[in-house]
Amino acid sequence: MLNNPFSYSHSKHKRQYSPKHYADYSKYKPTLRLEYEGKCIYCRFPDTVKGYDNFGVEHYRPKSLFPHLRTEYSNLFYCCNTCNRRKGNDWPAVVFVPNPDDHVMIDHLRFKKETVEPLTEAGRYACELLQLNDPSLVRTRKALLASLQDLERTIAELDKIEKQIKKAYNKGEISLAERDAELQDVEEIRLERLDAINVIAGRD
Questions:
Q1: Which stretch of DSSP H or E encloses residue 112?
Q2: 91 — phi, psi (to 5°)?
Q3: CB-based burial of residue 174 (10 Å sphere; 0-12 exposed, 13-18 middle, 19+ buried)?
Q4: Taking the complete model, does pTM exceed 0.85, yes or no?
Q5: Are 114 and 136 in contact (CB under 8 A)?
Q6: How far is CA 110 from the centre of its chain?
Q7: d(CA 95, CA 124)
Q8: How far apart are CA 132 and CA 44, in angstroms?
Q9: Which of 34, 75, 192, 204 is deepest in the core (most CB within 10 A)?
């Protein structure tokens, strides 16, 4: 199977964009979406699954406690509304919630199939605060990963069918027109399956 699409990064994120300053922090959302490849920095769900309208701008340092950072791009992240709501105004004095700019996420949190495993105290804190293993989230991840496996198996079968069609043509068992029609059908099915994979994996 392809790499788990929910996986956390193995390195710190280096910001690629430097948008102009906005007085309204919500205007950074499209740029933040590009910056973090359309995935929530915490639960790792892509907006292709949850929906763009179910994502917003997360203030890592809460705007209620750090009003001067309200529109500071370096303090803003792309986050689903659920994680954003659960984190709220939390700003712990000792333990921190890992973020991909300041921390190597995989050092603190990792996926074992559909379940998030905390590896550090900070990871445990984030996992509990954000409820990263909420039963509904785990169930959805499990279903998506199973669908991904099924789609990849279908594509592997289509590759075999394509070879069989070409072999039949080379042996003179089917005409050129028949070969082209059958290959076109296979390609249409492949494109549909690839599109579904891209949705699950969070690729536009």
A1: strand 109-112
A2: -150, 85
A3: middle
A4: yes
A5: no
A6: 14
A7: 10
A8: 10
A9: 75
